[in-house]
User: Fold this.
Amino acid sequence: MRKHAPQEPAIDLSPSPGDEVKTTTCYMCACRCGIKVWLSDGRIRYIQGNPDHPVNQGVLCAKGSAGIMQHYSPARLDKPLLRVGERGKGEFREIEWDEALRIAADWLAPIRERNPDELAFFTGRDQSQALTGWWAQQFGTVNYAAHGGFCSVNMAAGGLYTLGGSFWEFGEPDWEHSRYLMLWGVAEDHDSNPIKLGLGRLKASGAKIVAVNPVRSGYGAIADEWIGIRPGTDGLFAFALIHELLKADRIDLDYLVRYTNAHWLVIRNPSGADDGLFARDGEGRALCWARGLPDGASEGRAHPADAIDIAPAVVGEYSLADGRRAMPVFHLVAERYLDPQYAPDAVSERCGIPAETIRRIARELAEAAFDHAITLPIAWTDAYGRQHTEMTGRPVSMHAMRGISAHSNGFHTCRALHLLQLLLGAVDTPGSFRYQPPFPKPIPPPNRPGKTRQPNGALDAAPLGFVHSPEDLVVDANGQPRRIDHAFSWAYPLSAHGMMHTVIRNAWAGDPYKIDTLMMFMANMSWNSAMNTGETIGWLTDRGEDGEYRIPRIIYADAYASEMTAYADLVLPDTTYLERFDAISLLDRPISDADSASDAIRHPVVDAAQQREGRDVRGFQSVLLELGARLGLPGMVHDDGSPRYRDYADYIVRHERAPGVGLLAGWRGEHGELEAKGPPNPQQLQRYIDNGGFWRSHVPESARYYKMANRGYLDWAQKMGFIGHADPIVLQLYSETIQKFRLAAQGHGAQQPPPQHRERVATYFDPLPIWYEPFEGAQVDQVDTKFPLSAVTQRPMFMYHAWGSQNAWLRQIVARNYLYLHPDTGARHGIADADWIIMESHHGRITVQARFAANVQADTVWTWNAIGKRRGAWRLDKDAPESRKGFLMNHLISDITPKGDYANADPVTGQAAWFDLRVSIRKADAEQNARGESEPQFAPLAFAEAEPGPLRYGAEFRARRAGVNHEQD
Assistant:
């Protein structure tokens, strides 16, 4: 009998994820990766990374893949909402867009007429500040800011006032050539896919990675060495490393003299109006003391510091022609940091790092930088005309994030790290930290904050900017703040991102005046974005003696029913990121890498109106432009009063910030033949879509390093519109800008601080980086020693801000958080693993569940951020673990210092000091342990709950493949 061959099953080895694919930009974190969204019958089937995209090169994380469930979240808002109950109850009625826009315009028009500053417009993680800041400027209010004041302004300001660039998303390590990388305070939430790609390259090449962080997770877990530092002491650690490098004479003096102000002369005239300023000639050029001049003057003399072919002194005291005494900057640096107070043995205990470890790290940095210097055979010409046949680099790189920034000493800590880099010659050289275009910028950047209204009511400049001197502060004739958040005041002079964390208290208190309307976008300020959450809720709902709300009107825009939505009087429903246009602009938060300039768009891959029956949502950017047109704001209407822009997409294409400069740099000109600068191109957005959603322009090879002083780069950057002129950018070890504020506090100059701020400004406006104990710890310890532990939060790699923890797929990874503490810490406090405990600060008390983890410094406790939810928010189940067991540390964090004299913030920039929190812990009582629920608990919000049962997605796609008529689960 003949045997039949077995029948092979039909297997599709390359199944298509869908019937259509569109490329756009992810919005599940700040990475802004390129994604490919697969559709099946108009529904999202699958999201994958775009391998052609310069940011992520096809890599995509769990958050990005879970964007499907973000888009289909039950918490999505569907219609504009008007409050009908008490504020904070979550009771609304749905209205149509015409009514919503009419109400908003009716509220805002009288404000614009009588005093635009009565509108406070603050936005969260919106990634469209190029529009929102311009809109505020045209409205005429100084009261505008985004989330940066409670996120990263110390990082940005510390870098921009020192290097003309910064860590965070504006620079990167040289992933190809670095041999030694130090990560300072880096969690896994920002720029994660590029960092993961880069770390993989470093691991493959054998480079050493050192993670400095109180908590070892994510990147720290794969580091070769973890330095479990005590929170808030990073600057002290950096100074100890600097001390050792100076003592060993392991300093790149050639780099310092060529590219920094190390040799500039600083006037020494105690109590004089010029003390601490740079010595300058009659043309304003900084002077150095130069020997070996062409005229043979061997004794030396003051000479323009930017001259070439001179031998400037870097130490010593010299007499100028007018009799004043002056010293080079480097002399002041050496004088300060060689002080024994910065020796490893002196700082070891406070930092929690053994002195020998500090000395070893310093030796390793020096060895990598100087004993293993690398040379690239690339010819280049510097800004002074010198031609070089090669590029020499120090293969030591550093990267830092919120862990060093979110402290009341964070500005100077950031500057300390930059000083360390500069002394090693490790800024924008092969192997070191590298600028990403459009950086570096002049120091400080030229745009100052707007403060004067023009005849048409618009501000003379955008509300946010960079202060150059006391004259740029936004204060009244008596030196009092003009902004509701007190940014750019004598209390927080260099607050370049504003101070979102102070807005609600000040608006409630009418300090410095009462506002009429608070308008916010994507800012969960009644919950996880609030310091002092409980009182913030009270301020949002408090009424005055007249029975009216102290904050009269609140307009809030969001895509989801968050905790903050409940406190709005008018809710404007935003789209999800897959339903709208966005510009990831070089004018805003660039996505460039060190070798190229890039920008990108989002565009609707699905139609919002077809996603759910009755859904009628609009992108907030388009809503803002329509509101501007209804209000007749300059630049938003034609002469006849008709709207200038159809919607945000039209604005992206046709708006010009300056002639030829728009939000997008690619395919400009009538036919798309130009880049960076050129007239608008009607087909620009389509060109982006056809190219995968992004544009990229490579920096010329000879211009990719030494960008601050590379003639090729500076000319290219000027041509691209990144800088106004191609002058070299001298890196600032010593900041004359900061010294001007100290002089003002000492009684010099036309603009001086009010008496109550003089000592503060004189103390913290030091032109060289300093370290001081974070305010909360210092002030609490003065009166009470019962808060011995530091407490910090980190954002997990698998979630981002509050919106990630509503995501059904991401919730399967984590649906509640714990307080993590070292087992030794638990033993000291009589706490066992999984105990419910009381955690207390000088400000408040919460009940949480503890878990032991050895990946934390023993005097520190920590948790994941933003997991805890309020019942009723985000349309989670009433018994969702996020609300029953999850918690926020925010309840413990005061928005003001323990003394109550200033905001809980950095005194230079106003950055919120989230990570200064000091706490005590003890075991909860038997009843609390039995209850097994976090405290405090708030009354549930009245939003409708989601359907009961698991939230599944995709069953209908599987059923269709199997030929079964199956309704979606």
User: Anything to note?
Assistant: Residues 97-114 form the longest helix (18 residues). DSSP finds 28 helices and 35 strands in the chain.
